[in-house]
Amino acid sequence: QVQLVESGGGLVQPGGSLRLSCTASGFSLDYYAIGWFRQAPGQEREGVSCISGSEDDDTYYIDSVKGRFTISRDLGTNTIYLQMLNLQPDDTAVYYCARMSITYNEKLCTRTDFYDRWGQGTQVTVSS
Q1: What is the Cβ-side half-sphere exposure of residue 94, based on CA atoms within 13 angstroms?
Q2: CA distances (Å), origin 128, targets 13, 69, 89
Q3: Rounded to the nearest 5°, which phi and psi values hold at 100?
Q4: Strand, helix or coil at 94?
Q5: pLDDT digits (tens, 9 = 90+) for 30-80
Q6: How far apart, in whole angstroms, are the C-alpha atoms of residue 37 and residue 47?
Q7: One-character DSSP codes across 31-49
Q8: Alpha-carbon gap, residue 46 to 57, rounded angstroms
Q9: 104/89 Cα distance (integer angstroms)
Q10: Are 14 and 88 in contact (CB under 8 A)?
């Protein structure tokens, strides 16, 4: 059974850090691209970062998180991480990971319609 489970969210002060985890089961992260998305109240779901299958190991970040967020993969635990530094109130959202249904494509990896499996989400709140 294909499943993605996110964890690691929480409440942090501005400037703080969190590491989100996305643990996959039923398939190997060696062969699938994974994306991290976020959705703030009243807003559309936004693609934040993507990582290709391990053959290419390509990564992508939207401009607003470049230099602050890092996506990585641990094949031993079949987990994708999103390390988030210097968090700001604008980063507040529910964060989701998802499995890309097509071969990794940087130009498409932030579009929700190219993903076929989603986790349940984890809340990140940045507030003083």
Answers
A1: 12
A2: 5, 20, 9
A3: -75, 135
A4: strand
A5: 999 999 999 999 999 999 999 998 878 899 999 999 999 999 999 999 999
A6: 4
A7: S--EEEEEE-TTS--EEEE
A8: 22
A9: 30
A10: yes
Q: Residue 98 CB: number of other CB atoms within 10 A?
A: 24
| 95 phi/psi in degrees, rounded to 5 | -105, 135
Pair 77, 63: CB distance under 8 Å: no
Encoded amino acid at 73, one letter: R
Token look-up 């031993």 returns 76
Q: What is the DSSP letter of 101?
A: S
Given a contact cutoff of 8 angstroms between Cβ atoms, the answer to whether 84 and 17 are in contact is yes
For residue 112, give the DSSP letter: G
